[in-house]
Batch of 3 targets.
Target 1
Amino acid sequence: AAVAGVAGAGAIAGAPFLRTALTNANLGVVSKVAAADAGPFTVHFWAPMSKWMISGASFFDLHRPTDQISLPQYTALTFTGLFFSRYALLVAPINYTLCSVNIALFGSSAWHLGRKIKADYIDDKQDPSNKPE
């Protein structure tokens, strides 16, 4: 843990120097990405990258049984993806990575939400075996 702490502190302390070196090296795309306001040397880059892990987990589980899908949770995730997709384009700096991850979150959550609503409210009403005797 101490080694990881020292390595992390060194990375944080050395990041401004590395960013300047990469920006001034004229390495094409690498220099442009390093110099970007929402690039890898800012929190604007890493927060959406970690959120991709959450959204990715939802994509890997697209066929989850509907009895394991929470209606309130996926409603919240769907609307979070919808609202923050727009928000990512309004903040400065404009964060296209945040926008893309929120579009993905919206899509995967809406898929699960639609399946849950269909299973609980549409298919149940059409199934004659669910009628009370």
Target 2
Amino acid sequence: MHGMDVVNKPPDIGNDQSSSTLLSTVQRELSDDLPSLETVRQMIKYETSLRLSESVQQLLDLYHKDDNAITVILDSIQQHVVEHFGYSHVNILRSALSRFPDDPVIKEAFYIKHNKITQGLVNQGESAVERINKLFRSHASAMQLLTIYIAEAHARDQWPAGKTISCVDQPTILEQRLDNARQFKDKYNFEMPMLVDSMNNTFHTTYGSWPFRFYVINNGKLVFKAEPGETTYSYDMDELDAWIASFYQEKNI
């Protein structure tokens, strides 16, 4: 694996040519066959060691504001792993759980147990907090808006994605979640009222909110639930704005 010097502006890795330099593999004939369970276990252990390595954590830290770059890095790691073991298709690794659903090693794999898809949230140049604060100011007079803080998607001690994103451990008691929520609101001047999910993850279990989602509940019924894009896996908050605008028009607000 090649290291990368930290620079003020990360180089563009959003294309195949540049991303191919992230990891190098000796050229050899690769198999299209399905590997054995033991081989898949070794692949997962190797992938985990790469993802948690200092060099990869530095890359994730460097590109933490670029969802596309993060995806390229993680995809490159998985492709490198399967080729390292003599196979060609990355789906060999990604389909491990469906092939061996009861294997304890595979079930404990970081990318299965803790993987949380990075969700794009805002327009380029606009922070998530700015967008949500703007939403709150625009509609708070006509409807109740709440944010629910749930389990960490990339906790420092579970599935780290660089020191910038993964700045806290996964809370194990409610007071830790409450403290994280308070610190976030203070640090980022987050204006919307914030609640905290229970340690049984009741809200997430009920609404499928991990790692990020937004909903509209009207007259006690769930009437809108955001779905990620089929190709980008990101959420478009414009959909929420559009629903609210339509609601205002219908109610003559």
Target 3
Amino acid sequence: SRARVMHSFWQRLNALFFYTLSVLGFLAFMAAISTYFHQADPKVELKLERILLRKVYGPGHDQAILSLGINADLRSVFNWNVKQLFAYVTAEYETEANVLNQVVVWDAVISEKELAWIRSDFVVNKYSLTDQGYGLLDNNVTLVMNWNIIPATGLLTLSHAFDQVHRFQVPATYS
């Protein structure tokens, strides 16, 4: 006959804790996977209202102050697993030194679906468009709306509205 071994209180508590942890981990994984196939259809319209280009002599660079028109309906990006949305506009351009320059010119943190429709006819950029050199003068710039989804559970994701961009030519003279 075999002797029966009794498990101690701590062994039973350990087994219960890790079983519960495994179930919670599985549920978090299933929750994250449930929003993987969510199809968002954001509508983005960006436009340049005004640009002021100046030459900064000390460090030697161009600086552009932009006035933007932003109409971005990102409400369709939200689902039950979205905790926050980090939306930002980048200005992208090429120079002789770099094939791609990306500068964030405006951003916002959105924590509710109702606030995810950004409508403003005249927004001055939060961060100046600065080129370390003189590469902005008479250059082509593309404004792109981007957003990061911060989920309650799951992976962070990055999206771009590349099909709804705004292109403009920087003036050939300084203001």
